[in-house]
Amino acid sequence: MAIHFAQAARACHVDQQRHHPPAEAAELRAPGFAAIVFGNLALILANRSRERSIVATLGRSNPALWWVVLGTLAALGAVVYFPPFAEVFRFAALDAGDLLVALAAGAAGVLWFEAIKVARRARREA
């Protein structure tokens, strides 16, 4: 679902680029990319367990997971905020509001899976 959401966001992004000059396109491109990255991280966290929630699994030790999460966030930060990398991707720096919207959009795609986990648990306990 998050992948479909990201693809829809990307499609809207491409449509927006046709109607805006390149400077504005760079401002639209970065949040879309960040939403895809956040969505993929959310999928990784959600798929750690079929029964336990993301919050419940965060307490389980998994050093490799945290290396992946930190590496991904560092790479995202580099391509968005480090000018030589941002120029390659033609990204404009994200402000805090855009970053939060991208995070929310990425996380929204896995909420359905978390709801299914809660429903399964409730059904088993009933």
Structure characteristics:
single chain, 126 residues, 7 helices, 0% strand
Structural overview:
The protein is mostly helical. The protein has one domain. Helix content is 80%, strand content 0%. Helix 1 packs antiparallel against helix 2. 21% of the residues are buried.
Question: How would you briefly describe this protein structure?
Answer:
It contains 7 helices and no strands.
Overall pLDDT level: 82
How many strand units? 0
Tell me the number of helical segments per DSSP (H or I, 4 or more residues long).
Answer: 7
Q: Low-confidence stretches at least 5 residues in length (pLDDT < 50)? A: none
Number of domains: 1
In terms of DSSP E residues, the strand content is under 5%
Give the helices and strands as they follow along the chain. Answer: HHHHHHH
The global form is elongated
Structural category is mainly alpha
Cα distance, first to last residue? 28 Å
Portion in helices? over 70%
